[in-house]
Amino acid sequence: MASKTYIGIDPGSKGFIAVMHPDGTREYCSLQDCDYHDIALFLKNIKTVCEESCVCCMEEIHAIFGSSAKSTFSFGETFGVLQGLLIALEIPYHLVPPKTWQKEIWISHDKVVKSYCGKKSTDNKATSINAARRLFPTEDFRRTSKCKNVDDNKCDATLICEYGRRKCL
Asked: What is the domain extent for residue 36?
């Protein structure tokens, strides 16, 4: 069992923070359902509980071609606030590009291929859901207990967290 607490962050507006404690327990914080103050308190509590033995992996983001200026700005704002909170709380962190953690976590059996205009590509959301279910079969990946469907953002945050644990960051 690892002696560190790992934090994984999918920084989108509907993103999630996933936490894996050394004893195997997990905690989550939905960025969609919390304001910045609540997120700060959540991270501060994690830092207090784990003392100095925690590390965070946050998905590195960039502008998405075709997105509006408003959505790109909002996405960047959330990313910047989260990075600022990690710095202020003195939580060590690593920015991890999506392709990097996906290459480490996904296996061929997880992959879901979609076709669009005759071109085939990987359906990242469905593939992450498959990987999360494979690695954590007892975990409930719905955003809340009232939701019917699995939340791919919660899956991504958990998988980013697992990436940090595997890499012993």
From this structure: 5-166
Other beta carbons less than 10 A from residue 128's beta carbon: 29
Strands 16-20 and 26-30: antiparallel
Please state the domain count of the chain: 1
C-alpha span between 50 and 69 (Å, rounded):
38
Q: Is 72 exposed, middle or buried (0-12, 13-18, 19+ CB in 10 A)?
A: middle
pLDDT tens digits, one per residue of 64-82: 656 665 555 566 788 999 9
The pLDDT, as a whole number, for residue 119 is 87
Which residue bears the tokens 């989550």? Answer: 28
Nearest in space to 27 (alpha carbons), one of 13, 8, 14, 11: 8
Global pTM exceeds 0.70: yes
